[in-house]
Specification:
Elements lengths: L2 E8 L2 E8 L2 H6 L4 H14 L2 E11 L9 H12 L6 E6 L5 H4 L5 E10 L2
Parallel strand pairs: 3-4
Antiparallel strand pairs: 1-2, 3-5
Helix pairs in contact: 2-3
């Protein structure tokens, strides 16, 4: 599998583009998302970056996810080699609207602050 990390500067900000060629076939084989996260963490480290923090929102009508947040944070932190305090998780519902409200699925939004490793 060929892997590339591309950096570019735009408006004074360094933007990082992670390109994982060949993952399409792997994803079709249902690779565990934690495995992909671990690989992403390794690639970031190799390129001289580290995760500053992560803010994530999980949208689901059921089940209530708050009791699972400590386990989820521990798993994410372990996969990326960061402290659990660098991860913020929130749960939301769409009050019965859309596919999440109809309990047909879940969705998640996440943003990560990347810092140059020193």
């Amino acid at each position: 599998m060929e892997e590339k990390i591309l950096q570019t500067k735009k408006n004074g900000m360094t933007m990082l583009l992670l390109t994982l060629l060949g993952y399409v076939a792997s994803i079709a084989l249902f690779i565990c998302s934690i495995t992909l996260l671990e690989q992403t963490g390794r690639l970031l480290k190799q390129a001289g970056w580290r995760v500053g923090n992560i803010d994530a929102v999980i949208v689901a009508q059921k089940p209530k996810l708050a009791p699972y947040f400590p386990q989820m944070k521990a798993c994410l932190a372990r996969a990326l080699g960061i402290d659990e305090t660098q991860i913020n998780l929130k749960g939301k519902t769409e009050e019965g609207l859309g596919f999440t409200g109809a309990i047909e699925g879940m969705k998640a939004y996440a943003v990560a602050l990347l810092e140059e490793a020193s």
